[in-house]
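Recall from the previous chapter that SMILES is a line notation for molecules. Here it describes zinc ion.
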Amino acid sequence: IEEGDRILAEAKRLFPILEVRVVHRYGTLELGESAVWVGVVTSHRGAGFQACRFIIDSVKARCPIWKKETYVDGPSEWVGCPTCEHHVVAAPKVFSRQAKLVGHSGQKSLKNAHVLIVGAGGLGCPSALNLAAAGVGHLRIIDGDKLEQSNLHRQTLYGYQDVGGYKALLAKRRLEELHPFTTIEAVTEHLSPQNINQYLEGIDLILDCTDNFAAKYLINDKAVANTIPYVQASIYQNQAQLFSYVPELSACLRCLRPIQPPADCVDSCTDSGVLGAATSIVGSHQALEAIRLILGQRSPATTHSIHFDLETFENYLVERAIDSQCAACSQTATKDFIYKDEALYPSSEDELDYAQLRKLSDAIWIDIREEWEHDHLIPNAQNIPLSRFEFSSISAPADQPVILFCQKGVRSRK
Ligand SMILES: [Zn+2]
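With both inputs in hand, we obtain:
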């Protein structure tokens, strides 16, 4: 009952639901009868289905209730019961091969670790999967994005039936199915200066699996201020880079690049393309480095940037020097230094909210997504993909407003 109450409280926090009830039957059930009934009241059907699925999956994975199946032509057996010897998932057996390398105390360190994974995409999926498989005890996965079809080739925790769901929740569900020794917390928000303190609470290590400079600088500045180590990776087509930051030992991101580069100086995966096998390799490297840090080991990634050429399979190391004047990590740094990035957290007067949009009935709408990105165009909108976009190609009277839009607002800000 207690675990059931916790699941319902989590569901209320994660989804916009008004009411929820769950009934779990016990005793003898005939074939085809339902054991569990879940009822949810929501304003929107999608949230209702997602909440129901979250609840039934969580009840199956977490509530200590087991069933015994009795067959007419054979013996009966308990399903998934932890007291039946052949159903027991025993930690010593599961981790026996890596125990030879990490030892009993190392396995205990992994079990006690609390890791924050920022981004459940191409890097976050392999990172989270490898950490859970290794027996890391607690993962907090934060990602405000919902799964799209174009994510599936590289975000290997998800399947076609998952499209439209929050990645953080989908990752939690999949990892709980696969790895019962790990507690997964899903956060369906984007990391921001407003919420980062809350999500760093109790965290021993951060994996930066994001794909934009603003998030990387935010994570750097807050990790440095709170003396939390982090592992950062990034990938651009066949080129990837990884380094880790350990307080007192490593140069931080601002030691290397004091000022955050503009958001549009590197293309995103949407613009430039990426292979799923490449992100899997880099995300796995990130998990390996994280495991080493949890075990108290120090790899060259703490003092160097590791560069991977995934076309030639060559790796090379570039030493990172600590900047004694660094605005984030030096003695003279202001505690809690954060460089505010206007591109990600805009207060620009050029940004419009829904109420403002409704008033602009005579505006020219220009969809700057690439042609292959949309199944159908918004009526009366012109499509001028960003790759071919020039302001001179828009012919509009000076007093007529022009609205540019894309999938998430990142490219239209450019
Ligand atoms: Zn620094």
